[in-house]
Design brief:
There is one protein chain. This protein is of the alpha/beta class and 443 residues long. Helix content is 36%, strand content 23%. The chain is globular and about 65 Å long. The structure holds zinc ion. The site of zinc ion has 5 residues, from strand 5.
Length: 443
């Protein structure tokens, strides 16, 4: 694949246009929907979105591409994913701690081979585009080669991605450990090599507090003090067993979340994956620090980790984005992930003292969590996630006629909300007719 060149011609994409401007949970006027709409794009940026009849006279020179009958929305976003694990998706029979030891760490070791890392990185980004995912926050392995491979593959496609090499030093085989005295320089080299190159950002990625010694956390604290603008991504309160291990490693600290807070990791641009086993105080702390939660339903179900409590996150107005956590998650499709997020909320009712107090996940809120919500969680919403003028033109075209079941179901849809629900429950990569990155058609 050669470098992508951005088209400079003004182009009008005609179709139904839908995007969020805010969180529909807290704002009644959080989205724009134009049934007979149009999206104008020039030089890789959004020029304007609106009704076609209102805007066509304003841009007579535009080349028109007709997607009438289809839905044009911002690209889908995955706020937490592990690209090196592609070949081990669907690894049988274990929960988090044992699954990591038995399958993950040995598989991730293979990424120290640059050829293999390149193969997986390119395959992974091609799959993202096929599934309509235009941005992601990605974990690479302890081998810097794995970060290099992913960033180079992203630059070739001009994609806005965040990535960082996950590191740890306890409860891990020695070959996968990064000693505390190497934490600073290891990250510094990768930050200086990749952060801000093209549309990419580096993320400091201390894997999870149950895999880090106090000395490793102190080294991380020193690093992040020197790089206040760099993203951070971690795992938090994924399952009960890992939470107990954190208690043993950091006996003086009250909770998993307070371990991260104690070492200064909780700030803006910190994405905390899972957040399943949190008390109210911990969720409140995440919101107060302006960090964000990644809701990872297929992974939490596959590993039997637990059911994320979106209602509690909303109670404290914590920022939440949806993600796959592939390959503990079982799909790269954000449409399918939305479907599973809905089921998690339904399942919460079965365990609630008062099931009626648990609200179903609204299709609009669900779609928000996979677009602008995830962009906010990843702190890239100033660039992507909506169709406001000047934003980068990463968008998808959804075809509700792509399969017979979706077609017959969506014919009943009388609202955008119900159409989105049909796509969330039975849609998949076949529903994504086209994917555009910076105005370039990639699918
Ligand atoms: Zn993860």
């Amino acid at each position: 694949m050669t470098n992508v060149l951005t088209s400079t011609k003004l182009t009008a994409y005609k179709g139904s246009v839908f995007y969020f401007t805010d969180n529909p949970r807290f704002n009644e006027n959080a989205y724009e929907y134009f049934h007979d709409g149009v999206l104008y794009v020039e030089a890789g940026k959004i020029v304007e979105a609106g009704n076609y009849t209102d805007l066509q006279a304003k841009y007579p020179q535009a080349q028109v591409i007709d997607y009438t009958g289809m839905l044009i929305t911002p690209g889908l976003m995955d706020s937490h994913v592990h690209y090196p694990q592609m070949e081990m998706v669907g690894s049988y029979g274990e929960q988090l701690v044992q699954w990591l030891g038995k399958y993950t760490i040995p598989t991730e070791r293979k990424l120290s081979d640059r050829k293999y890392a390149d193969k997986i990185a390119n395959l992974y980004l091609d799959e993202l585009i096929k599934h309509g995912t235009t941005s992601a926050a990605i974990f690479a392995t302890i081998s810097p080669t794995s970060s290099d491979a992913l960033f180079e593959a992203a630059l070739k496609r001009n994609m806005r991605v965040i990535c960082g090499s996950a590191y740890m030093d306890v409860n891990t085989p020695e070959y996968a450990c990064l000693p505390p005295h190497e934490v600073y320089d290891f990250n510094k080299i990768l930050i200086e090599r990749w952060n801000g190159k093209g549309r990419t950002n580096y993320a400091i990625s201390p894997r999870s507090a149950y895999l880090l010694s106090p000395a490793e956390m102190e080294a991380t604290q020193a690093l992040i003090l020197d790089y206040p603008e760099v993203h951070i991504q971690v795992h938090l309160a994924e399952n009960k067993e890992s939470g107990d291990m954190v208690g043993d490693l950091f006996p003086g600290l009250k909770s998993y979340t307070e371990v991260y807070d104690n070492y200064g990791l909780m700030r803006e641009k910190t994405i905390m994956g899972h957040c399943v086993w949190l008390d109210d105080h911990e969720v409140e702390l995440i919101a107060a620090r302006k960090s964000s939660c990644a809701f990872l339903p297929t992974s939490n179900l596959f590993l039997g980790s637990g059911l994320f409590n979106l209602q509690k996150a909303n109670k404290y107005r914590a920022t939440v984005g949806l993600g796959t956590d592939y390959a503990a998650g079982t799909t790269l499709s954000m449409l399918k992930t939305m479907g599973e997020a809905y089921k998690v909320t339904q399942l919460r009712k079965a365990f609630a003292d008062n099931p009626r107090a648990v609200e179903p996940l609204d299709p609009l809120e669900n779609y928000y969590l996979a677009t602008l919500g995830a962009a906010r969680a990843m702190a890239i919403d100033e660039y992507v996630g909506s169709f406001e003028s000047g934003k980068e033109a990463d968008f998808i075209v959804l075809d509700s006629k792509s399969t017979q079941d979706l077609s017959i179901r969506s014919e009943r849809s009388e609202s955008i909300s119900d159409l989105l629900f049909a796509l969330q429950i039975i849609g998949d990569d076949r529903s994504v007719a086209h994917t555009y990155i910076m105005g370039n058609k990639m699918k």
